Amino acid sequence: MTDPQKPDPNAPWCPKCEGHTETEWVQAGDSGRNVHQCVSCGWTAFEVGKLKAKTSAAATNIFFLTLILFPILVVVGIVTGNWYGSLVGLVAVSFLALFIYHFTVRQPAKIRERWLVWAKERGWKEEKPKGK
What we know:
The chain is built from two helices and four strands; from the N terminus they run ββββαα. It has one domain (12-121). The chain is an alpha+beta fold. The protein has helices at 48-80, 83-121, and strands spanning 12-13, 23-28, 33-38, 44-47.
């Protein structure tokens, strides 16, 4: 294991312990997905370097899901004459998009922000992408 206080975006980082702690792979609930779990406190540890790409993909998926569902619900309202049903559908899709956004984009972004503050306190400098 690397030094727990030396920032490494590719090593699992525990937000509760605020360090690169020892982790083990465990199954996350009934999802069948495996995650890093901190051995010290039991919280989920994250590989911060992977969070940025995941949140960008999730935001794109939410945008296109909403972009597709909104017109469908409007057309259904026009064809059936049932505007109340379409309005309820639009509100439901909006809440679903916000719910998905919170857990797939906002929450990982907050963890990444916390890690960046923690890493910069320890002298870590974010690498600039090549070609920019």
